[in-house]
Structures are given as C-alpha cells and as structure tokens.
Amino acid sequence: MTAAKTLYDKIWDAHVVHEAEDGTCLLYIDRHLVHEVTSPQAFEGLRMAGRQVRAPEKTIAVPDHNVPTTTDRAKGIDNEESRIQVEALDSNAKDFGINYYPVSDIRQGIVHIVGPEQGWTLPGMTVVCGDSHTATHGAFGALAHGIGTSEVEHVLATQTLIQKKSKNMKVEITGQLRPGVTAKDITLAVIGKTGTAGGNGHVIEYCGEAIRALSMEGRMTVCNMAIEGGARAGLIAPDETTFEYVMGRPHAPKGAQWEAALNWWKTLKTDEGAHFDKVVTIRGEDIAPVVTWGTSPEDVLPITETVPAPEDFKGGKVDAARRSLEYMGLKPGTPLSEIPIDAVFIGSCTNGRIEDLRAAAAILKGKHIAPGVRGMVVPGSGLVRMQAEEEGLAEIFQDAGFEWRMAGCSMCLAMNPDQLAPEERCASTSNRNFEGRQGFKGRTHLMSPAMAAAAAITGRLTDVRNLM
Amino acid sequence: MDKFTTLTGIAAPLPLINVDTDMIIPKQFLKTIKRSGLGVNLFDEMRYDTDGNENPDFVLNKPAYRNAEILVAGDNFGCGSSREHAPWAIKDFGIRCVIAPSFADIFYNNCFKNGILPIVLPQEDVDKLMDDAERGANAIITVDLENQTITGPDGGSISFEIDSFKKHCLLNGLDDISLTLEKAAAIDTFEDRAAQSRPWV
Ligand code: SF4
Coiled-coil region(s) at which residues (chain B) (predicted)? Predict the structure, then answer.
C-alpha cells in the first residue's frame, strides 16, 4: 500500500525531474508567467549567456505593474523608467517568441488574473512567476509560487526550478460564512490568527465547507494572500466549481484531452489520513468583516473592535505596533468604525475580478461616495472591464462618483501614477498595507470589496452589514 | 556568482521584526532594468527624509556603520514581495551576510543567488549578536561558512545550520543554471513522459 498523500505531495511528485541525495529537487515548471518588473535582468542574463527560452509556448508575459490605468493610456507612458521597462518586455517577448498580451490588447491585465482567465492555469500544474502573489493560482489546485529574478532566468533557460520540498499545512474553515463576510475576510482572518510568519516553510491547503462553498474568484482571493501568511503557496483541491470555470477557456484542453485531464484532476485531493505538519481550524461562523489597522497584514481586527495599544502585544510586536500606529496616525482605543478615509481603491490581483466588482457595486448601487473622498475602480483585466460594462457595473461605479479605470496593478503598489499622497488614508481591496506601499507615507487599510464600498459611502471605515 | 567563504566585518543592528521588501527597497527603485546601483536606495524611506537628506538616526547613516558588511535583524526578515532588488540593494551597499531569527522564504532563496549568506539563529543568539553589533565599529564579527561558525568581538563562537547544497554553491560561487543544464537529458526525458501522460499541458 502506498502512503497517504496530501494534494501538495501529489503535485510535487508528478513534477520531480531529479532528486539529489540531500532532497534538493529539480522541479518541472508547466507555466511560467512573466511581468515587466522582475524579468528584464533575467532576459539580459539569457542574452549574455547566449541562451534561449526552453519552452516559449509555456511562457506567458503581460505588463501590469507600471502601466497607466487612465483611459488615454494609448498615448504612451510618461515616466521614462516605466516606459523603458514595458518596452523591454515588448521586445523580450518578441525576441524570445513567448505568448504576450501587450497593453493595447483587450486581454491585458494583472498577470494573476490573465493566467486563469485565459485558461493557462490548470489543476495539477506547477506555475511560477517573478511575483509573490503567484500563490493566487493555487485556487485551481495548482502548485504556484513566486520566485526571484535569478530563478526567473533559471526557469526561462531550463523550464525547471531547484527546490526543496516544503512542509504541509492545513487551514480548515468549517461551516458557513455569515452575511457580509467574504473570501477576503477569510484570508485576512487566517493571517490574523497565524501571523505573517505562521506559514513560513509550508504550503497551505485550504479546505473545509466554507472554502468549498466559494466561487473560483473567492478561492483566488484566499490563495492570493497565502504569501502574506508566509506560506510558499496556497492550494485548494479542484472540484466541479473548478472544472466548470476552466471549461471552454482559450487555453484549456478540449475534446478527448479534456476528458483525460478531468480524469487526472479528479484524483487531485488529499488522501484520507495524510499527514499535515501544522493544522489551523477556524469556524466560518466566527469570521467577521475585518479591516487592518497597522502596517502588516497580520494587524487584522473585526470592524466592530477598537484600535489596539502597543502594550496589548508581546515581544518584538510591541515596538512594531507602536511604529505602525504612529505611521498610521491612529490612537489606541479609537473605534475602527470611526476612522475617516480619504480614498478608496477597488482592484488588484486580490480583488479585481468580476465577482469583486459585483460585490462592491451591489453596495454602491444608487448611493454616492462621501464628499471629499476619491474612489478608484481598476478592473483586473481588459476582459473584466468589458464584462463589468456589459453588466452595468461600470455605470453604478461612475454614478456613485468612482473613477472607472483601465486594467493594471494601479494603486496596489503605486509604481505607476496611481498613488496616495503622504498621510492620505485609503480603504483598499489590495493585499499589502506595508509602509509606503500605496504611495510615500500613504496609509492603507485592507478589506473586502463590499467593505471598501461601504467605506466609500460613509467616508469612514464601516461595517458593511449596516448597509445591507 | 560571487563566492562566499569567510567574512570579517562590522555588524549593523536593525532590531525590527517583519522588515519587509518595501522597506528594504521601495517600489520606485524597481524600475531599473539593471542589477547594480541600488545600494544608495537601500532602506530608502528610513534612511532619507522627504528632501533626500540623510536621517542621522538611521543605523547605516551613523559613522560607525557606514561600512557595515553584516546586518543583524529581527524575526521574519525580507517578508513581502519576490523582488530580487532587495538582495541586490543589500549587496550593492556592501552587506554580504544577514543574521535573523527567521527569514521569508523567497528573500532567503534570493540571497543565495547573489552571494549573500542569510543565517538563521535562535533568538538568544541573535540577541547576543545584536548586543555586539550595538557596539559599533568595535563590533567586528567573523562569519566562516565552511565551518558554519560566527565569532563575536569577544571571541565567543556560535555555530549555525545551513542546507548543504546551498552551502556548496555559495562556497564555490556556482551558477545554478549551468548546474541544471548538466541535467538536460533528465529534463528531456521528463518532457517526453509528460507529453504522454499530460498532453494538455
Ligand atoms: S495587483 Fe498588486 S499584488 Fe497583484 S501583482 Fe499587481 S502589484 Fe502585485
């Protein structure tokens, strides 16, 4: 009898090209996603060594971090360095013959949204990208993780990655979510519980009834932030929801190959009795709509709570919390729901999919953004944008006073013109509230799209359940 | 890649936990298409004020630490993005070794690709080295990768763990891609097999 395996074990085993005595493995990579920021030095390395891309047909590139998201962007990028970086990707994609979605293509968008949307991401695959939020693709039951630029070059040249196996961690969300609670609240609540280093050295498999009940969009939101919990990757076993999403996508298998793929995909689940090195269980009913108050994604609290004091913590976190509160300009004891905001950002690879826009629009319908607050909606891809326009969501956002933008990373990281001013406070659906992430000295509160919409209406952090 | 064998140098203390990659090198410096030149912007937002003047309180701006080659830091160092600009900036500044109770995964791996040695030590050992580092230019620490030891200014020695393959590559300055290309036949075989078993990939 073979030993019981986890989902991670199964995908790993199916991709080992070579294993050295010390356990260092050469892992085959099925999909390599590329964007403009972490790839130029890798392509330059290939050129200098006279190497080719080993599997250009498995390599997909799209510019996203630097691209402007205003509707007039066809006129080009003003910032010279940004322009050079995007142009470098244009020419590298052409020179090396890889799949490419340039800024002018309706399918262009955030790399982690484009991959699944085009059917490049499939269950059981290994997927890498020079970007930590590659974890997103784990929603399909694909082993997906971020790599550095040297590793990007390594994958380009060899279609493999040198890896040691991580440990298995199980995060189970039992039962059902209460109204107003979404996938974003799940993933933030998990990080709040485990801390940002809680998953270090592990691959997380998310399971349980509340995870099963999520759509693919929701599952991508959950896996997206596995990295914020320190995990190498996050995984969700594929099921009918997954297969339904994948079927018919441009690069999904068809006909007999679809049947063959499906047969294998259905075996991709953790066996009864498989060993996990770490287990975390949270009751779905216990999760509330949450927001972050500090500058680490682990600084999470239900919206009904108050800003904590540094003394509430232990060890190194006392100083970290003091620094966070100073940076965020917050006083301990202030109810979170009384914190006024200046900006709202709805978008990013965490929450820039159609379902996210629907959730925000449902709250905003017929309402208007509070005076003095600026709001920005940035669809995750050109196709999401188009669909939202067809469904009338764009109109709801615009009527509510939001700017309706073109696809890109936008204010998730402010490498483009979309940025917070110093001390500007933002209700954001992105994934990082680090100092300066959304602009120099900008202040970020992470939350779900519905919560961000609620904050837009009242002009302060708000419990979305009061507006439902 | 540059070899790492032994290093004797000044250790700078950075007693913060969760030092993220945005702190190490903020995003406005990721627009380069080169690997070099990032050292001046290492820890940019802590190191300079809004007008670009040096903040005299930041450790690497203090005369004693300007030539630091070792950094002693808190838990979960390098968390956040996958940007290799973080180790590039650290190395370009002149730091070749970072010591902390734990590191974020991707950052840890990225260090090895750039000839930087990240060392994980128990909190008590890091605390001791942090104390040593606070003594400024008098805190000369020696890191010996071959023997896996750190010797402090008082001569006390601490040993550390490291993956044997990573150690081997660092000691010899081996380039991963050349090593992997030696296994090209195994990759070919794998692809042939996968084309049969998973033709849709
Ligand atoms: S949307 Fe944000 S987190 Fe996602 S890839 Fe872009 S910058 Fe990274």
Answer: none
Distances (CA, A) of A341 to A355, A363, A370, A413, A415: 24, 17, 10, 18, 22
Q: Do A253 and B200 touch (CB under 8 A)?
A: yes
DSSP state, residue B40 = G
- Contact (Cβ atoms closer than 8 angstroms) between residue B158 and residue B152: yes
Rounded to whole angstroms, the Cα distance separating A70 from A48 reads 36
**Count of domains for chain A:** 3
Strands A160-163 and A143-146: unpaired
Q: What is the CA angle A144-A149-A154, rounded to 5? A: 75
- A450 within domain boundaries: yes
Domain hosting residue B128, numbered range: 6-173
For B143-201, how does the pLDDT look when each residue is reduced to its tens digit (9 = 90+)? 999 999 999 988 889 999 999 999 999 999 988 898 999 999 999 999 999 999 999 99
Domain assignment present for residue A180? The answer is yes
Q: How many domains does the structure of chain B reveal? A: 1
Low-confidence ranges of chain A (pLDDT < 70): 1
Shortest Cα distance from B155 to chain A (angstroms)? 28
CA distance A420 to chain B (A): 13
The tokens describing A35, both together, are 């964007």
Measured CA distances, B18 to A43, B95, B101, B114 (Å):
31, 19, 11, 22
- Cα dihedral A325, A376, A39, A98, rounded to 10, equals 150
Identify whether the C-beta of residue A140 lies closer than 8 Å to the C-beta of residue A112: no
Q: Which of B17, B82, B191 sits opposite A130 (nearest CB)?
A: B82
User: Is B33 in contact with A40 (Cβ distance < 8 A)?
Assistant: yes
Q: Name the closest residue on chain A to residue B164, using Cα atoms.
A: A22
Give the B window 74-93 contacts with A, CB below 8 Å.
74-76, 79-84, 87
Residue-range definition of the domain harbouring residue A248: 7-164+242-260
In tens, the pLDDT along B75-85 reads 999 998 888 99
Q: What tens digit of pLDDT does each residue of A212-266 get?
A: 999 999 999 999 999 999 999 999 999 999 999 999 999 999 999 999 999 999 9
CB A349 less than 6 A from any atom of ligand 1: yes
DSSP state of A281: E
Query: Is B190 within 8 Å of A55 (Cβ atoms)?
Result: no
Point out the residue among B31, B50, B180 whose CB comes nearest to the CB of A81: B31
Determine whether the interchain pair B106/A146 forms a contact, defined as Cβ–Cβ distance below 8 Å: yes
A273 is written with which tokens? 């009795």
- CATH code of A86's domain: 3.30.499.10
B42: which residues sit within 8 A by CB, 6+ positions away?
A: B24, B25, B60, B89, B90, B92, B93
| Complex-level ipTM | 0.91
pLDDT value, residue A147: 94
Asked if A23 and A130 sit in the same domain, the reply is yes
Nearest neighbour of A436 by CB, restricted to B45, B75, B82? B45
